Every structure is written in C-alpha cells, then in structure tokens.
C-alpha cells in the first residue's frame, strides 16, 4: 500500500516529529497539510510552515501550509475545509501539536495549565471531531495521536501532574474515538517513542545538547507512522504503540541509524510502561 495522492492533515508539522512524518509520506507522493502556528522565523525554533512546505515538495509531495491554532474552533474548521477544497478529501489526521511544562503542581501557573490542556487534549479532540465526516468517506482513514500508553502509574503523574493530565487526555481520545469510530472504518491509534527524540522541545526545555545526543531522530516515528497508515484501517485500531516494538513487529531489524550519537546510551522517554521491554539494545554501541 502506498500513500500516493493520500491527504494528510498534520498539526505542529513545521518542524520535528510532525515534519518528519510529512516528509516520509511525501516520498510516496502524498498531499501534506502543514497545520501549525509558525509563519514567521522564530529565534529559538527552526522552520516555519513555508520552509516545511518547501521540504515536502522537494521530497516528492504536494504541500499546503496553513496557519492554524488548534485552540481556535474557527481556525480548525477553516483549515479542514481548505484541505478538502484543495485536495478533494482527507485520508489521515495526525494530532502532533503539543505543549509541555514539567513544573510541579505548586510551581505551574494556571495559564500554562490551560495552554497545555487547550492544545493537547482539547485540540486533539477538536481537530479529530471536525475531520470525522471527511475521513468517513476515505478508503483507508486513520487518526494518529502522538501520545503515550494509558499506564496509570503514580510515577507518571506525581512529578508533573498538569502536563500528564494534558498528555494522557490525548490518549483518552484514542480510547474513546477508536470505539466510537470503529463502525465507520476509521482507525484511531497512539504512537509513542521509547527514547527521547531529538526535537526542539528536548533541546530547549528538557536537556540540551547532552540529551539530544542520547536521543533517536524523528525518523523512527515517521517510519512507524508510515507503517500504521499503510495498514488497512479495520485491521489496526485502538492500539497504543511504542515505536521500536511496533517496527520490530513489522519486520524491522536495524535501529542504529536512528541514533543521534551512537557513542551515547539512549535516554528513556516519559510514560513508557515498565512491562514494555526494549526489543533492541539501547546501550552505547561504539
């Protein structure tokens, strides 16, 4: 199965994981909607919706860069309408846009709490909601959340409750939508990295250069997402997938090329359940 001429609506696709997923689809000749807020260059963040569109086109796809605020209902409605008008339909939605703040309960301010919930949980719900009528007409429709397995362990909530609530809210959408939309043939799944991923959030907010070197590239998630999208939607839904475990289940055996720095052991990501064992070596290999 190919993504040629399929239309993907990807939130937060101006850089990082969202852009990587778009680029992988573009190699098949897909139509990629870059739904993000960055229209002007940012001093600390690489890329805009327009540079992302150029990269999508260079990779072999068609691009539609749209300034979209996933917190705003009219912005989301207009973007989805423009997508359908431009490409004649909608096949895949990727809810990648996310806000992060790892402050404790006493330290986090309510403005930041609201922002995380508006983008992560509410934004995911709203984008998916307005996409459903169009996805229902597609031949192999998928909704994918970049969100964690629903592992209700205290250790994932106590250090940063506000962020965990917002992030797990995306996963609750997976659980609910999968059941609600199964009869329509719309697959709804979650994808999450076992290790940290070399993105702006990791570099700027979590660990800087040291953690970047201990990370995998966004390409591992892009390859996993591609395999999800090229699976018949009625055969894969309601799943909380860890990137490397899912890829191994699909026959992938080589993972070292995803490492940023092979001399560094890979750093584990948040929210990976204790019973999810790495299928490949995470130690330094040189």
Explain what the structure shows.
The chain is of the alpha/beta class. The chain is 40% helix and 12% strand. A 7-stranded parallel beta sheet has the order 3-2-1-4-5-6-7, sandwiched between helices. The longest helix is centred in the middle third of the chain and has 26 residues, at 110-135. The relative contact order is 0.13.
Distance between the termini: 37 Å
Which sequence of strands runs across the widest sheet?
3-2-1-4-5-6-7
Query: SS-based structural class?
Result: alpha/beta
Number of helices: 9
**Helical coverage, percent range:** 40-55%
Quickly list its features.
alpha/beta; 286 residues; globular; seven-stranded parallel β-sheet; 12% strand
Write a short abstract of this structure.
The chain has nine helices and seven strands, in the order βαβαβαβαβαβαααβα. The chain has helices spanning about 15-25, 50-60, 75-85, 110-135, 160-180, 200-205, 210-215, 220-230, 245-250; strands at about 5-10, 30-35, 60-65, 90-95, 140-145, 185-190, 240. β4 (about 90-95), α4 and β5 (about 140-145) form a beta-alpha-beta unit.
SSE order and pairing:
Elements: E1 7-11, H1 16-26, E2 31-36, H2 49-59, E3 62-67, H3 73-87, E4 92-95, H4 110-135, E5 142-145, H5 161-181, E6 187-192, H6 200-206, H7 208-213, H8 219-229, E7 240-242, H9 243-249
Parallel strand pairs: 1-2, 1-4, 2-3, 4-5, 5-6, 6-7
